[in-house]
Design goal:
mainly alpha; 72% helix; 112 residues; single chain; flat; 2 domains
Length: 112
Amino acid sequence: MKRKIYYVKIKRPIKHFYQRLTRGFDDSETWNLDFEISKFILPRLERFKEISLTHPTELTEKEWDDILDKMIYSFYMNTVINDLKIPEYQKVYDKIEDGFKLFSKYFWNLWW
């Protein structure tokens, strides 16, 4: 038991520090990868919406803004989903899934 505590409290933080230095992230970021990806994408997607000068040709500017809002909502909710109780999660799950599908569909349109 002492060996495990030693590893968790002393050795693991040192290992993670070294990993962050050498590759820019540590193994702990892969334990809940969907959360980490959402944390990375969310602020960038919000900023993209603020500064974007264009939209897909088949959409109006309003439609594109609504789609971006749905994407942003999905990534935001994915960062707070652990705080939701099961019935609340079921209510928002379909909206989250829709936003991720839109992200996939319009991925190539996320350019300035």
